[in-house]
C-alpha cells in the first residue's frame, strides 16, 4: 500500500483490509507493507499513532510493516520500492497492490466469496494473466470490447458452494465463477488492459519479468508495456450481483475513497516533488539507498 499525506484515508484503508482478511480469508498468510512516500511530520505522527495498535497482529501468519521515506520519490518509484524491494523480500507469489484510498468492503463484499483465493487460482491457471482487478470500475472506461464473461471452476475452503473432501481430508467447496478477461486491443487510445496501480492481485513472477515502472507517474506506460508483452487483466464475479450490465459498472472488493489529492506542487507524484531525488544515486532505487525509517516492523 503506497501512501502520501492522507492519514484520513490510509488508516481506514489498512483497517478494512485487515478486517476482510480476518473475517473472509483467514487461511491466507499475508504481510501488509505500507510505504509512506515522504508525508509531512503532522501526517506521519497521525499515521504512526493510529496504526500503532496493529503491532499486536505480528505473527507468522499476519503482520504489518510501515516504512517512512524522508523525501517523496514519486508514484512510479514508490511502487518500484514496494514491488521489487519490500514485497519481494517476503518471497510471496502474489502482490495485492493498493494506494491509500482503496478501502475493502470488509462487511459488504457484494459477491460474497473469497475473491483473493479465486484470483490466485485464476493467476495460476492463465499464463498471460498479470492481475485480477479488485476495484470498482466502469466498464466503458476500459474499452476492451468485445469481452464476454465465461464460467470457470474454483476450489476453496470458504462457505458458499458444494462441499467436497480434499486429499488431506479438509472441507473444500466447488464454485463456478464468472471471469471476464480483458485483453489489450488499442493501447494508443486506451492503455488500461494490462496493469493498474489500483486494487488488484498480481502475479509476482510476471511482475518481475515486466520490470520497473518508468517515469514519475508511469501507470499508463506500464500498462502499455504489459500489453506489448502479451499480459492482460481480468475480473471475477460470482453472479450478476457484482456487475450491472445496464450501468456497465463493476463492484469490486475495494471501493475508491479518494476524490482529490494535495496541491500538485506538494504531491509525491509531481515533478517538483521528485526533482530533488534525481541524480542522487544510480541504478534502481531500494530502501538501502533511500533515507528512511521503519516505524512498524514485520517481526
TrEMBL record:
Q: Supply the InterPro entries for this chain.
A: Nucleotide-diphossugar_trans
The source's superkingdom equals Eukaryota
Name this polypeptide is given: Glycosyltransferase 2-like domain-containing protein
State the species of origin.
Tetradesmus obliquus (Green alga)
Q: What is the lineage of its organism?
A: Eukaryota, Viridiplantae, Chlorophyta, core chlorophytes, Chlorophyceae
